[in-house]
Amino acid sequence: MNELQKPSDDAFFGSVREILAEARRKTATSINLFMVEAYWRVGQQIVEQEQSGVARAGYGQELIKELSRRLGDEFGKGFSVSNLKNFRQFYLTFPDLQKGYTLRSELGWSHYRLIMRVEDADARSYYLNEAAEQGWTTRQLERNIRSGWHQRLLKAPENTAAAGPVSPQAILKDPYVLEFLGLPENRSTRERQLEAALIDNLQEFLLELGKGFSFVARQFRLSSETAHFYIDLVFYNYLLKCFVLIDLKMEKLTHQDIGQMDMYVRMFDDLKRGPDDNPTLGIILCADKDETIVRYSVLNDNANLFAAKYLSVLPSEEQLARELDARHVLDVPGDGGGE
Fold this sequence. Notes:
By secondary structure, this protein is an alpha/beta fold. The chain has twelve helices and six strands.
C-alpha cells in the first residue's frame, strides 16, 4: 500500500479540511458582520446629510435617489432606493451603535431588517437577543414576530444578567400558536390526533414552547396502588430545572380538567421528581378557556398550574389583541401560575 494512502492518514486529511472549512465559516461571519455595520454607517451618513442639507421639500428623497444611482454605477446591485431607505431606518432604529451598542455576529442583515420593523423597543431587544442566542433562522424569526411571541409570554422576561432563577412566567406563553400542524380551525380534531400531530412536528413544537425544553415521553404512565393514569406529553425544562406536564383538551376548559392536572402534578412530584428537581409544572393546553373557572379555581392560587389556549392558525393583530385582552382581564395582584 502506498504510504500516502494509509488509513491513519484519513484523520489527518479530515483535520486539515475542518481547519479550512472553519476558516471559511468565520470569514463568512466576519464579512456578514462588517457589511451589516457598513449598512448602519451608510444610514448614519444619510440621516446626518439630510439634517445638515438644504431645507426644502423632497430633499431627502432626491438625495437617496442620487446616492442609489452613484453607488449602483460603482458597486452594482444592492443599493436600490428601497435598500438605502432600509439602511436609513436601520440607523434610526438602532442609533446607539456608536455609544457602545454592539451588533450580534450571529445575525445577518435579513434578521435586522425584520427586527427593526418591530415598533416596541422592549420587543425589539427581546427578538434581537433570542434570535442570536437561540439560532433562529430568518424564517423562524419572521414567524415568531408574526405570531406575537413576545406579547404571548405570560410576563416580560427578566434581565438574564440579574441574579436569581428564571421564573416559569418568563418562558411559558398564552396562547400557543400551532399553525405548523395544519389542523382545521373547527374542533373536529380529536385529542389523540392533536397529540400525534405534535409528535410528528416535535421540532416545531419545541421551538414554539420556547427555551430549555426537551421531550421526555408521550402517554406517560403514572401508577397508584389502585389505578393507572396517562399524561399526554411530558417535557423537561433545563432552565427551570423541572418536569413540565401537558394535558391536551379539545374543548373548553372545565374544573374537572383542572382537578385532573392538579392530581397529575402531585403524583408526579411524589413518584418521579428527583431530589435536585424543582416542583413539577402542569399546563392544560385547551381549545378554549372559561374565564370564570380560571379565576375561581386552584389555577388562581397554584403557581405550578397553568391553562393556555392553542390557536390552529397564525392570529391576526386583532385576534391576538383580543386573546391578550382576555388574559389581562384575569391578571390580579397575588395571582399564581394561572391566568
